[in-house]
Amino acid sequence: MNDIAPPGIRFRTEAEKVEAPTPRAQDALAAPQGGVFPLGRPDEKVEAPTPRAQDALAAPQGGVFPLGRPDEKKARHEGNKLTKRLARETTRALSDYNMIEAGDRVMVCLSGGKDSYAMLDILLQLQKRAPFPFELIAVNLDQKQPGFPADILPRYLTELGVPFHIETQDTYSIVTRVLEEGKTMCSLCSRLRRGILYRVASELGATKIALGHHRDDILGTFFLNLFYGGKAKGMPPKLVSDDGRHTVIRPLAYVPETDLIAYAELKQFPIIPCNLCGSQENLKRKEVGRMIKEWDKQHPGRSWNVFNALSRVVPSHLMDRNLFDFVGLKPSGVPDANGDTAFDTVDPTEGDDACGDTAAPPAQAPDGIVEKKVMFRRG
Description:
There is one protein chain. The protein is α/β, with parallel strands linked by helices. The protein has a domain at 73-282: 3-Layer(aba) Sandwich (Rossmann fold), CATH 3.40.50. The protein has twelve helices and six strands. The protein has helices at 23-30, 51-58, 72-96, 114-129, 152-160, 171-178, 186-204, 215-229, 257-267, 283-298, 302-309, 340-344, and strands at residues 105-109, 135-142, 164-168, 208-210, 238-240, 247-249. The chain has a six-stranded mixed beta sheet, with helices on both faces. α3 crosses α4 (114-129), α3 crosses α9 and α8 (215-229) packs across α10 (283-298). The chain is globular.
């Protein structure tokens, strides 16, 4: 074939194979002088950069990463620590006060707030690894407050696979009819709610009623009674209802509110506002709450000291004649190791802080129970 080609021209032979140029080679051939490749070819496969690579690309000259982006690994670590701490403190409270026993049917009162969501979530975790069986049933009372999203809790509980009961009672109309406009509704509303929940507990065969009150609620109630009621009275972790028929438990008694706020953010619970009725929260309780928060900032450990004091009562060194027989008190001639000598040898006001404040116990747990190994009680 080459013999008949025009002078200076040579035909390719069949043995000479010509491969099609690659897309990149095509780009090179099509590029203008200087070898600059065209941008954005549609036939080139480009993988999306990772979040860290995006940060690197977005960083200013010098390679400084933008501030404020949470480190995912650290966030996961902190979330795991929080989850374990909440489970541990709830387990301690359950064990210390024998809140749940074998065969119990626990009615978990779910309002749609962060505390009750966390309580249900933690109890579900503990139920899986408890050394004995017990049942959980979530109960919500729809009080027909204006704007209450009645679909949120049933959908959440159904997706969670938790047995539940929604009790519908129009207590809002009763409260607004009885009270004058502008009056705080919370007290009357809570009394009506309590009576309804006791009835529902009986109908469901519940042996325990679990409420979501936490450490700060217990402290706040104590100070309200102390400041405004003249009583050294708080909110116990476990009690028998006023009708004598039900046992009420507070599994979150050892948990500070700050942990519950963080846990709600971590778990992204579908929170329902608690002010739908339009009533103002008790101003005295808000004042006490601010006081406790200020203590936690200014004097770390003070609120824990007060909380611990609620379980270290010394009746002989108070003034309640119903708790201690002051009238019949006489010297016995026998030394008492727990008498004045034992109490007066150490002045609690001595130390670095005039108020005797100390650092908060590890994991913000009540002092004296940090190293205690606990288990649920069997029936």
